[in-house]
Design goal:
This protein is of the alpha/beta class and 201 residues long. It contains four helices and eleven strands; from the N terminus they run ββαβββββαββαβαβ. 24% of the residues lie in helices and 30% in strands. β6 and β7 form a beta hairpin. The longest helix has 17 residues.
Length: 201
Amino acid sequence: MTFEKFSKPLKLKNPILIEGLPGIGNVGKIAIDYIIDNVKPTLIYQIHSHNFPHSVFLSEDNTIELPSVKIYRYEGKERDILLLGGDVQPLDEVSSYEFCEEVLNFVEKVGCKEIITLGGIGMPDLVKDPKIFGAVTSANALKKYKKFKNIDFKINQKIEAIVGATGLLLGLGNLRGIEGVSLLAETHAHQTHLGFNTPWI
């Protein structure tokens, strides 16, 4: 796994990481792409890995591009926001653990103590009014995020596990003292379905 650096050494203000990678309904990817398109953050790292799919993407001008994951920085008034998004995530369990550990090594180094991950909950049919469910790393995190009334924290009644980076970043981060929440929106589980309508954006 290689980290390609695009910025000078970082001095961040109380940074928080928000992750949104491809997954169920591509909810996380769509959400993070929406944020990136609107706040125009600065690209600080681009990640390539042999554990990503063995393919390249074709652009509109027929040039090729390796699949990658990117980390952006948005300088907020009170704190900095790190945005983790991209085309792919690792294909297997071991690679997913290795990827998440590398990301956590980076965010820990820059002083990040909080993570928000974004994803979807697959439903058998199209959902007109999707709900947002939350899973937290601790009682302290629950107290913090419970003030947002549109998040339902009875997620264990919907799913038994959060798969991939969306879950592992929180689980592995919690071992390092990094707290956070996973926000999962209901979406149609069909493999060709892309998109959602949810009040978080």
